[in-house]
Design a protein that fits this description.
This protein is mainly β. The chain is 6% helix and 59% strand. A hairpin with a 2-residue loop joins strand 5 and strand 6.
Length: 245
């Protein structure tokens, strides 16, 4: 199911996710003002050597990726209903950058509404990233980012998180998922553990992994080198973990 266009059905699913997991609250309000705004996003680095970033979307389609050699901490394009205000707040203290990219209010129009974000973070910048999506579809490919910490709060929908890419140090990942499908793509040459094997309702497939308590681990988990440790808490749905070179 594709949920790039959010409507009353998305609102209902989001409420179900909240009821089951308490993950995220999406304010529900009907709005008959149909029409979209397209905006180019470019947030200058301004000397930052680290980044603490939060991306919060009420409902829609979210695409997150990376950009090499960028003088910006964040770039991309967002398309959103005119009545859904998107706000970007960025500040630098010393060499530490703080970014908050949010949608102040997620109202649900009577008709269809296109709410699509295509955002790219700078590679080579140590980053702590937290992503919240109330309801919708997310395609996240952040394996090339220099991540120190990664967190997801997902209400309802379909999400792919691709973590393939070189790693030089450990990466803790926290995922709270309500209802829907979750696909995790991880590197085969990096030690990976995915906790929460016995939790939630629905299938949990991890080809090439072996069970270790309440977790799945790959062969590289017991070898020296950096690790990706994923703490997954889920409600209802399907989880698939794939390894790629």
């Amino acid at each position: 199911m594709r949920m790039a266009r959010a409507g009353a059905g998305v609102a209902m699913i989001a409420l179900m996710a909240v009821a089951l997991t308490g993950c995220y609250t999406v304010p529900i309000e009907r709005d008959d003002r149909i029409g979209t705004t397209e905006e180019q996003i470019s947030v200058a680095r301004e000397g930052a050597q680290t980044l603490d970033a939060q991306v919060t979307m009420g409902a829609g389609r979210l695409m997150l990726g990376s950009a090499a050699g960028s003088e910006t901490v964040l770039s991309g394009t967002v398309v959103y209903p005119k009545s859904w205000l998107v706000r970007s707040e960025y500040s630098v203290e010393g060499t530490d950058g703080t970014l908050r990219f949010t949608q102040e209010r997620a109202t649900f129009p009577v008709g269809d509404a296109d709410n699509t974000w295509d955002l790219k973070f700078a590679e080579g910048l140590p980053t702590r990233l937290a992503v919240t999506l109330g309801a919708g579809e997310a395609d996240v490919a952040v394996g090339k980012l220099d991540l120190d910490d990664l967190q997801f709060t997902l209400g309802a929908g379909e999400t792919t998180i691709d973590l393939t890419g070189p790693r030089t140090r450990d990466l803790p990942v926290s995922i709270q998922a309500g209802i829907g499908e979750l696909r995790l793509v991880v590197p085969s040459d990096v030690g990976v553990r995915v906790s929460g094997r016995n939790d939630g309702v629905g299938s949990f497939d991890a080809d090439g992994f072996k069970a270790e308590g309440n977790a799945w681990v790959n062969d590289a988990w017991s070898e020296p080198g950096p690790k990706i440790d994923i703490d997954l808490q889920r409600g209802i749905g399907e989880v698939t973990v794939e390894m790629q070179p």
